[in-house]
Amino acid sequence: MKSSFSIPTRILHHDRLQGAAEGALHQPTHTSVAYGFEKSEDLLRVFQNKQKGFAYSRQNSPTVAFLESQLTLLEAAHSCIAFSTGMAAIGSLFFALLKKGDHVIVSRYLFGNTASMFISFERLGIEVDFVDVCDVKNVEEAKRENTVAVFTESLANPVTQIADLVAIGDLCKKNNWLYVVDSTMTSPALFQAKNCGAHLVVHSLTKYIGGHGDALGGAVIDCGTMNWEGFGNIMDIYKKNEPATWGMTQIRKKGLRDFGATISPENAHRISIGMETLSLRMKQNRQNAQAICEFLENHLAVAKVHYPGLASHPQYEKAKEWFGGGSSIFSFEPKELDSLELLNRLDLVVNSTNLGDNRSLGIAVAPTIFNELGPEKRREMGIAENLIRVSVGIEETEDLLEDFKQALA
Ligand SMILES: *Cc1c(COP(=O)(O)O)cnc(C)c1O
Question: Is 114 close to ligand 1, i.e. is its CB under 6 Å away?
Answer without folding.
Answer: yes
